[in-house]
Amino acid sequence: MGILDSLENSPELKGMLGQLGAAVIPVVLGEVLGNGGQGGLSAIVAKLEQAGLGEQVRSWIGTGQNLPITAEQLQQVLGSDTVKQLAARFNIPVDQLSKVLAQQLPAAVDGASPGGKLPQTA
């Protein structure tokens, strides 16, 4: 099972997406976490830690409860240009994309780090 597979079937995700559609956000997360312009999971984790969000990231990778991140924090880390490009590419309003990504990124990182460790290929 890929890290994004469980998100596609998440009732929470489906409920909050509304017009976005349940298939779009896993693709966008794939761009952010995968081989997109952000450099993959390890690069995203490093950027978040450098931005002072290490406590949140450690909670996602660890086995406890995931701490939240705001849409604004995520947009600062990814860069507003990157978020705007992703939003334009998938025809999603920037504010909605940032909000949903901020809500779903902790679960995606958590799912990609079984046993509290990032995969070697992340």
Automatic annotation (TrEMBL):
SUPFAM superfamilies: YidB-like (SSF140804). Pfam families: YidB. InterPro entries: YidB (IPR045372), YidB-like (IPR027405). This is YidB family protein. The lineage of its organism: Bacteria, Pseudomonadati, Pseudomonadota, Alphaproteobacteria, Hyphomicrobiales.
